[in-house]
């Protein structure tokens, strides 16, 4: 924990997410100087500043490419990325597919409150159809993005959902995402108490929530996970939708292996110089 006091509105769901991250990191036990925490722009993107990890509050929608650069430059760091639904699924949405296909060893936590909170309550990519906001006076005409379905369809190896209504469960899920050897995505329904819709508040979330474990969901079955993910916005399934039982190598592993392979046939430095220096 850093000495900074969060400046979120009293009751904001991001306080709960922060507690979940503290618990997960405490369970993992890596010292702060071995952790890099990258965010974009938005209320939730303040979160790295409330930890003692190396924090990088980047530009809007760009937490993932920056996190990727950090991980490739220093593979020993534990790298987390975080942000909101606008940051992650609108301006930053194009990065998701590439982060998944590269299988970067990064845990990405999205605080999804289905509204733009920092800029005072406009429609976000996950706002439901019909929602009335200051930018949709007569109700939104657009279908929302389904983050769970997108990530499962892209082929992500770890996809989960959590909510501050179940703090212990959320901490366990964040810890599992961090421990997953590859790209891991956690969508957290985090209420915006100032601009968020009624059913997104704690009472509404509790009424919608259902544990995937209690449903007997097999988290190694991607198609079953995609089936359940279609309930996004209507039901709040909490738990791990999908975890690849045989995680493939990460991008970092592949780059390291390629470097080792190429270095076997590399000419010694003195021979390279011979190519250019006439004797
Ligand atoms: Fe949280 Fe909403 Fe306040 Fe932002 S505006 S700090 S998301 S409650």
UniProtKB/TrEMBL annotation:
Domain Thiamine pyrophosphate enzyme TPP-binding: 41-188
Gene Ontology MF term list: iron-sulfur cluster binding; metal ion binding; oxidoreductase activity, acting on the aldehyde or oxo group of donors, iron-sulfur protein as acceptor; thiamine pyrophosphate binding
One GO BP annotation of this record: small molecule metabolic process
Key word Ribosomal protein present: no
Known cofactor(s): thiamine diphosphate; [4Fe-4S] cluster; Mg(2+)
Protein name as catalogued: 2-oxoglutarate ferredoxin oxidoreductase subunit beta
Record Pfam families: PFO_beta_C, TPP_enzyme_C
The species this protein was found in: Mesoterricola silvestris
Pyruvate ferredoxin oxidoreductase beta subunit C-terminal domain mapped to chain residues: 192-255
Keywords tagged on the record: Iron, Iron-sulfur, Magnesium, Metal-binding, Oxidoreductase, Thiamine pyrophosphate
């Amino acid at each position: 924990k850093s000495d900074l006091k969060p400046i979120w509105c009293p009751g904001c769901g991001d306080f709960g997410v922060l507690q979940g991250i503290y618990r997960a990191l405490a369970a993992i036990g890596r010292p702060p100087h071995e952790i890099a925490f990258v965010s974009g722009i938005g209320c939730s993107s303040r979160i790295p500043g409330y930890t003692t990890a190396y924090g990088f509050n980047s530009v809007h929608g760009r937490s993932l490419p920056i996190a990727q650069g950090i991980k490739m430059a220093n593979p020993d760091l534990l790298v987390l990325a975080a942000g909101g639904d606008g940051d992650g699924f609108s301006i930053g949405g194009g990065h998701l597919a590439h982060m998944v296909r590269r299988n970067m060893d990064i845990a990405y936590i999205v605080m999804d409150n289905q509204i733009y909170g920092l800029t005072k309550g406009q429609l976000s990519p996950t706002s439901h159809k019909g929602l009335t906001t200051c930018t949709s006076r007569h109700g939104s005409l657009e279908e929302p993005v389904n983050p769970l379905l997108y990530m499962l369809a892209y082929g992500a190896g770890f996809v989960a959902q959590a909510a501050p209504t179940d703090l212990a469960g959320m901490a366990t899920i964040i810890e599992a995402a961090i421990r997953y050897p590859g790209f891991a995505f956690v969508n957290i329904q985090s209420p915006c108490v100032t601009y968020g819709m009624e059913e997104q508040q704690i009472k509404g979330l509790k009424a919608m929530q259902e544990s995937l474990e209690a449903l007997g969901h097999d988290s190694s079955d991607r198609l079953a996970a995609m089936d359940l993910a279609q309930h996004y916005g209507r039901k709040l399934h909490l738990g791990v939708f999908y975890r690849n039982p045989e995680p493939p190598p990460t991008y970092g592993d592949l780059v390291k292996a390629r470097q080792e392979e190429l270095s076997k046939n590399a000419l010694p430095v003195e021979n390279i110089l011979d190519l250019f220096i006439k004797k």
